[in-house]
Amino acid sequence: MDWAVTAFRLATSGAADATQVHTHLCYSELGEVLPAIDALDADVTSVEAARSRIEILDDLHTAG
């Protein structure tokens, strides 16, 4: 997971401050990787959670 976060941050590090960095995640155990999602430091993260019965909402509530 650390490698993936480092790679994402490296890939987006050249973006200008005025550029909004978006990422999209789907079909995974999002609750298990919330710290890594936060570490991405993306401006916008969209999540596809329909197949998980929107369990991510519970995970976000617990984490927040």
UniProtKB/TrEMBL annotation:
SUPFAM superfamilies: UROD/MetE-like. Keywords: Metal-binding, Zinc. Pfam families: Meth_synt_2. Its cofactor is Zn(2+). The keyword Zinc applies. Residues 1-61 form the Cobalamin-independent methionine synthase MetE C-terminal/archaeal domain. This is Cobalamin-independent methionine synthase MetE C-terminal/archaeal domain-containing protein.
